[in-house]
Amino acid sequence: MKRDEIPTRENCDLDDPEEMFWWMLVSLPELKGALAILPFVYYRLVSKRLHDCGARLKCDHCGHMAEPTIKLRLPQTEEAWLTGAGKWVPADEPDPPRTEAKDLVRKMPPELRKELNDALDAIKAEEET
User: Fold this and answer.
1) Mind telling me which residue stretches traverse the membrane in this protein (predicted)?
2) pLDDT (tens digit, 9 = 90+) per residue, 66-88?
3) Residue 86 domain-assigned?
4) Quick check: is 119 in a domain?
5) Contact (Cβ atoms closer than 8 angstroms) between residue 5 and residue 72
């Protein structure tokens, strides 16, 4: 998993004791305004402790792995790190359609769109040098 990613089942290594349960410890019940109470690195240690205490996702004998009944849905348009947004929903609930960047830009007021264009031009110029 990349350093700046929010732990999810899809981006965690489910065979690594430090990541096996890590994704389950994000956006815990009744937690408002944050994805975690402590730094994410702490929850890697908790995941390993759960593993060391005998918790498993996969049966050591037959390899059976139960599929989760819930999944974490992160917001598409908000910065999840800043807002602490994200909610657990039924695993079979369809994800909402992804908003295209072009549609977001079309909804921007002209002055904000100009600011965005200027910022993109500045970044492009920096990268070319």
Assistant:
1) 20-42
2) 899 999 888 776 555 556 667 89
3) no
4) yes
5) no
